[in-house]
Amino acid sequence: MKGFFRYLILGFLVVMASPLLAQKKNSLPASKKNTAPEIKSFTLDGKSSGSRIKLNPQEKYMLSFVLFDAEGDKINMGWELFSVTALERDKKAEAIANAISPVSRERAMLHVPIEEGEYILWLYVNDGKGNTNKSSIKFTVLPN
Question: Mean pLDDT throughout 106-124?
Fold first, then answer.
């Protein structure tokens, strides 16, 4: 009879603890929360965001970037190029189409607009799980 109660108590403990163990297994601790991908570096023609970048119109320049996701999630990228003048006139200005073409996982080609002026290029990254990050580079297109 003693053995029966032991097994009964042990069975009761297993049944009661199972939901708690499953809940703990499926939830990440606060320190292990899924984070946004990082943009470790982002350069245009070898120059970073703080540089005074001057480009010739209608030429192509290399963009380089290093991206990292702490959880190893697949990183998705997007690009937007805007004329600063257009953004100052209209905050909902449309991005310049076909300005970026991919080259590899860490490089892309910028096709410089024909019009002189100030431009801003945005790089957006996300991990497909709602975590996003962005970085920008400003540059000047010289007169033709």
Answer: 97
